[in-house]
Write a structure and sequence with these properties.
Elements lengths: L1 E8 L4 E8 L4 E5 L5 H11 L2 E6 L5 H4 L2 H8 L3 E2 L6 H5 L1 H7 L19 E4 L2 E7 L8 E5 L4 E5 L2 E2 L2 E2 L9 H12 L7 E4 L5 E2 H7 L9
Parallel strand pairs: 3-4, 4-5, 9-12
Antiparallel strand pairs: 1-2, 2-3, 6-7, 7-8, 8-9, 10-11, 12-13
């Protein structure tokens, strides 16, 4: 069975997901954005073996702990799309600007394009390319459990910011329409910040997407 524990990290309360197979105890982390020691403690308390770290995009609150954690775990870093490489290259400078602890550099093992299928044991996750918030944003969909990780593309009652370098609002809306709203309405999603929601709820109630469903 697939299990998930959401651990908010950094002052921005970014939702890092610890995802694991309940039988093998193999795990991945999605968007390990900060508080590396806390994430290690959570993993150890659950008795898990981390096999990889996945990134939806390159912003520091989603990737800031990856370098430090990989000095400990030495596992593949998968994602995002290579168009977000510039964000990861700037991660130390951006953290300094926001007066955050300066993180270790992030070295990506595998860039994603969309359409790949990632695995955790027998569990499969479809990669969907969702530019807009950042140019290289991706999301992860597990059809078996109708569970989606949207990063900073789609939130409960909101959408991702597009006032960053190389952001594009029209592109973001298109990504939501074609990559999120084409999934079943009962798909639950874990977003980068805030509460979980469902695709069906956002189609009906998200004020930024009124009339844009489908």
């Amino acid at each position: 069975m697939l299990q998930v524990k959401i651990v908010p990290v950094t002052a921005f309360a970014q939702n890092c997901s610890i995802v694991w197979d309940s039988v093998t105890k193999d795990a991945i982390l999605i968007d390990a954005g900060g508080d590396a020691q806390r994430l290690r403690q959570e993993v150890d308390a659950l008795g898990l073996t981390v096999k990889a770290m996945w990134l939806t995009h390159g912003h520091f609150d989603h990737a800031g702990a990856v370098g430090e954690l990989n000095q400990y775990w030495d596992v593949p870093v998968i994602g995002p799309h290579q168009d977000d490489a510039f964000w990861l290259d700037m991660i130390q400078d951006v953290c300094a600007r926001y007066h955050f602890p300066i993180p270790q550099p992030v070295e990506v093992t595998q860039w994603l394009k969309g359409g790949e299928v990632l695995t955790l044991g027998e569990h499969q996750f479809e990669v969907r390319f969702t530019p807009g918030h950042t140019p290289g944003h991706v999301i992860f969909y597990n059809a078996e459990n109708k569970l989606l990780w949207t990063g900073d593309v789609l939130f409960k009652g909101s959408i991702g910011r597009t006032d960053f370098p190389k952001s594009n609002h029209a592109q973001l809306i298109e990504s939501i329409q074609t990559q999120c709203f084409t999934l079943p309405d009962d798909t639950r999603f874990i977003c980068g910040h805030g509460e979980m929601s469902t695709i069906g709820y956002e189609k009906q109630h998200n004020p930024f997407l009124s009339g844009k469903a489908g």
